[in-house]
Design a protein that fits this description.
The complex is a heterodimer of chains A (100) and B (217).
Chain A (H helix, E strand, L loop, with lengths): L4 H11 L17 H8 L4 H4 L18 H33 L1
Chain B lengths: L9 H25 L5 H14 L4 E3 L3 E3 L4 H7 L2 H19 L7 H23 L5 H22 L19 H34 L9
Antiparallel strand pairs in B: 1-2
Classes of the chains: A mainly alpha (100), B mainly alpha (217).
């Protein structure tokens, strides 16, 4: 199936994904507490006290790989997970359909 | 454009979840009709592409950065429902594994980048598909419309709660700040990137699998 060539495209894009690390600017609104202190003099309470989940690879870092390695790792992990989820969904849908 | 935990009032989180749950339900029903051996590799690849595209942070003047979303191409190729669901899945992975966005704000982010982005792209595409720049235009519009939604949700937060010192509890900047900053940057930069991406990704797929896209242009 020719469509699988899209995998090469995806692979090529992943190869150059560390380019996304070049910018050290945060996205607008995605700041740390320090930014709020500097710009408005305080950190809004809900932002300061938020109980956010402990993401295992917070900010696309791993702790066991460098910046570039971690970025590759994040991309590959997410792609594998997305394929796994859609494959499982497909299996579930197929079983459901065959029961009807 | 990923709204983090703590940025939105509990009421906003509740209302956005109330709105997004039935939409996810409908989208899943649509996925059931669409997902088969043929479409699975493409839907999964395009979702993966969206995740990867969002990793390319592009700096812009003013000390911030941003990225394309990659939702328009899925909406145009399949349906906005599939684009919306794929994007929601990507946002969920970003929040849970990478701390990008948040779980309390997943509904708002999914409505903005997912629902508004997906339906915006397909609406503009259907209006403009006779013209040469329709793909670019629908990508651009999807990012800009999504940014309007996110800017409004963020910009109303200062009115939704203050602490004992009358300081905002949640996101502190109002619409006068969020609209120019978020929507402006998407009109000028990230929308253009989304448009270019949508155009070239589509043309590329057309070369790979002309029969799949038959009747689409």
């Amino acid at each position: 199936m020719k469509i699988k060539k899209i995998y090469y495209f995806l692979f090529a894009l992943v190869l150059v994904v560390p380019l996304g690390l070049i910018s050290s600017n945060p996205a607008w609104g995605e700041w740390g507490d320090e930014h709020y202190k500097q710009t408005i003099g305080f950190v809004p309470k809900a932002i300061e006290n938020t109980h956010t989940i402990d993401a295992p690879f917070s900010d696309y870092t791993t702790g066991f790989l460098g910046d570039v390695g971690s970025y590759y790792f994040s991309a590959v992990l997410a792609i594998a997970l997305l394929f796994a989820i859609f494959t499982i969904l497909h299996k579930v849908i197929k079983i459901e359909k065959s029961k009807r | 454009m990923h709204i983090a935990d703590g940025y939105l009032s509990p009421l906003t989180c509740a209302i956005t979840y109330g709105a997004v749950l039935p939409l996810w339900f409908v989208a899943f029903k649509k996925l059931k009709q669409t997902l088969d051996e043929e479409t699975l590799p493409l839907i999964a690849s395009l979702s993966a592409l969206s995740f990867v595209v969002m990793m390319f942070n592009i700096p812009i003047p003013g000390g911030t950065s941003g990225h394309a979303i990659g939702v328009g191409i899925i909406s145009i190729l399949f349906s906005p429902w599939i684009g919306f669901l794929s994007l929601s899945l990507v946002l969920f992975i970003q929040a849970v594994l990478f701390g990008d966005g948040g779980l309390s704000t997943l509904a708002a982010n999914s409505l903005g980048m997912g629902f508004v982005g997906a339906f915006g792209a397909s609406f503009v595409y259907n209006l403009s598909k006779k013209y040469k720049f329709s793909l670019f235009l629908s990508g651009w519009a999807s990012a800009v419309l999504a940014s309007v939604f996110i800017a409004v949700i963020l910009g109303i937060q200062p009115y939704l709660g203050v602490d004992t010192n009358s300081q905002p509890l949640y996101f502190p900047f109002d619409l006068k700040v969020t609209i120019p900053a978020i929507v402006g940057s998407h009109i000028l930069f990230f929308g253009i990137i989304e448009g270019v991406f949508t155009h070239f990704a589509y043309k590329f797929l057309l070369k790979l699998e002309p029969t799949f896209l038959e009747g689409k242009i």
